[in-house]
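Structure in, sequence out. Go:
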């Protein structure tokens, strides 16, 4: 990893993902987690403050970026729940089958290079009855915005850690074998609509 990827990019992502509209969504979503939790793409640990210690046994924090793991140290030290760091990408989750009660993703599924492989790994580690709780941005509901998202994404990915603006998160989850239990689609209150079409909800294993 180069200087940009490990020094500059983590700071940029941390700042943008800590803006109040995103924090409001985190405050809504994270308390839904319970039991043994796997947070995929823990980043700098922004979500840790919002876990309910009365509902969560501990959190496995999966984060492949060394720069992000460094930035997470202070949030881990203040965390109300135990955190067990895992330094591998989503395509390589080092956990046993059927070991996780809740998988949490926030602004993560847009960046994983092989999303299909990562979702297969997530399904593998989920217990029967487990939930995937997610807050993700992706493909907008406007054809005009979709065209711009498709145009911009190739360059955007190179600058912002592989982030895709145009992933249809709901469809991707269903095609991967999840059942969508709850789903809200809306635009973030502030910021460009190209970046802020949200997929907010929960999914379970099909069958």
């Amino acid at each position: 990893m180069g200087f940009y990827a490990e020094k500059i990019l983590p700071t940029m992502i941390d700042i943008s993902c800590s803006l109040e509209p995103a924090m409001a969504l985190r405050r809504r979503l994270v308390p839904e987690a319970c039991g043994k939790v796997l947070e995929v793409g823990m980043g700098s640990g922004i979500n840790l403050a919002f876990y309910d210690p009365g509902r969560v046994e501990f959190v496995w924090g999966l984060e492949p970026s060394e720069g992000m793991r460094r930035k997470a140290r202070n949030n881990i030290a203040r965390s109300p729940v135990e955190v067990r760091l895992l330094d591998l990408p989503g395509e390589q989750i080092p956990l046993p089958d059927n070991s996780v009660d809740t998988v949490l993703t926030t602004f993560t599924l847009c960046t994983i290079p092989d999303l299909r492989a990562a979702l297969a790994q997530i399904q593998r580690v989920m217990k029967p009855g487990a939930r995937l709780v997610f807050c993700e941005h992706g493909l907008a509901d406007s054809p005009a915005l979709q065209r711009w998202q498709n145009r911009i994404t190739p360059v955007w990915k190179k600058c912002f850690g592989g982030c895709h603006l145009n992933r249809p998160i709901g469809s991707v989850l269903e095609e991967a074998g999840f059942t969508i239990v709850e789903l809200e689609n809306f635009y973030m209150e502030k910021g460009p609509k190209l970046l802020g079409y949200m997929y907010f909800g929960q999914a379970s294993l099909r069958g």
